[in-house]
Design a protein that fits this description.
Elements: E1 2-9, E2 12-17, E3 20-26, H1 29-33, E4 42-49, E5 54-60, E6 66-67, E7 72-73, E8 77-83, H2 91-103, E9 108-113, H3 122-129, E10 136-139, H4 148-155, E11 160-163, H5 170-177
Parallel strand pairs: 3-5, 8-9, 8-11, 9-10
Antiparallel strand pairs: 1-2, 1-4, 2-3, 4-5, 6-7
Length: 210
């Protein structure tokens, strides 16, 4: 049976196949070959217990692309989410994200979040820096629900990896776009000026219409 890994936690891989979600372990041959299944992988699997929805991942199908951080395979595009303030954007990290995606041939969307915190003209100045980067630019304020329709348009029909620094609003954006999976959200440390990590695993989440 073929399926797709949509989540991986603590050595378990959750494979969506034929309309059902199976909890699977990877066969020992993967460790022998030095290969680790990733979220997004198309796989061959065997069912061990249909009633309990348990199985084994037996083979990986060829990957179109693969990223190390976040660990995900077979994506159509990347959305790099960062805040205009709170925390302040680190342009070196942002540029590194863009380069990593470009090396894999993955189209990039830059999403500037917390636009409600920007001073007049600040967003335009920031966008002008990346205007010729080849990246599509979006501006959002999750608190005010601004720009969410444009995000939905970008995500429709595509597998998108969402990356960015802690505290930028990745979990809040995910929660705003769908109701099925609720991601833990955090706050920005006032002392350190950076976010606290709340997302600890990769997962494919459908972002449907309201």
């Amino acid at each position: 049976m073929q399926g797709r890994i949509i989540k991986g936690i603590a050595g378990f891989y959750y494979v969506y196949a034929q309309g059902r979600l199976y909890e699977c372990k990877a066969k020992g041959i993967f460790r022998k070959d030095g290969v680790k299944p990733m979220v997004g992988d198309e796989v061959e699997m065997e069912v061990l217990d249909e009633a309990e929805l348990e199985g084994n991942v037996t083979a990986l199908l060829p990957r179109h692309n693969a990223l190390v951080r976040p660990a995900v395979a077979n994506v159509d595009q990347a959305m790099i989410l960062f805040a205009i303030h709170d925390p302040e954007p680190n342009l070196l990290v942002l540029d590194r994200f863009i380069v990593i995606m470009r090396q894999q041939g993955i189209p990039v969307i830059l999403c500037v979040n917390k636009s409600d915190l920007a001073d007049e003209g600040e967003l335009d100045d920031f966008i002008s820096v990346y205007r010729n980067s080849g990246c599509r630019m979006l501006c959002t304020s999750i608190r005010r629900a601004d720009g969410l329709s444009q995000v939905r348009e970008c995500l429709a029909g595509r597998t998108t990896v969402v990356a960015g620094p802690s505290g930028a609003g990745k979990s809040s954006l995910t929660n705003a776009l769908q109701q099925e999976v609720r991601m833990e959200t955090g706050t920005v440390s006032r002392k350190l000026g950076r976010g606290r990590h709340t997302t600890r695993h990769s997962q494919i989440i459908p972002a449907g219409e309201d």
